[in-house]
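Reopening this one. Same input as before:
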Amino acid sequence: MRITSAPRAQRKPFLIATIIIIIFLPTIKLRYNQTMNHDFISNIESKVLSANIKIIQLTYESGYNSTSTGVANHYKQFPVCTIEHASEKYDLAVISFVSDKEYAILPLTENIPKYGDQIATMSNPYGERNAVTAGKIRSRKNWNYEDESGKFIYEVIYHTALTSSGSSGSALINENLEIVGINLGGNENLFRQFVSGRAIPIDQVRIFLGEWDDYTFP
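Same output, byte for byte:
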């Protein structure tokens, strides 16, 4: 029996079609998720979007530079935060600040997120402020993720809610508007398109908080 491969003329359209699918499939999936979860997203936007706080590290040199002085004066309108507890082992931190504004406070879920659970994230993907993106949990267990330095290994879960640079530290929320994880990063394909998000699951967040002497579980 002789096995032959497809002629080059036939393989070329197949290759082009494959590339097109790779390029456009992530966008199609994202739009589908957003459309199918319209009510969920609207609920987050109307009730708890103020919980998505942007933290800025301000560094400037004082002196006669008017630009530096202007920048410093601009940021005086915002509250200054204090780091209460931090851990490189979990890549998490607890901060506090005083403000006259009211912010939504989200509870930590009592339930471990399961494969297929509906979730959403409030973050700033690709520079877009206060974006709410929906998806599902795609992990059946916690996975080990090693940081770039190789110094730390984190337990993470994967999900399909869009994240990117600017999403780290944002909340992963379930349909009860409870925090089920904290976003750590994500995966992209060869075309630098979003494939999956990576988050520290709530059980690891609770362990981190348990190591903080001043924390009392609700």
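So the earlier flakiness isn't reproducible anymore. For the record, Helices lie at 8-36, 38-47, 66-75, 202-210.
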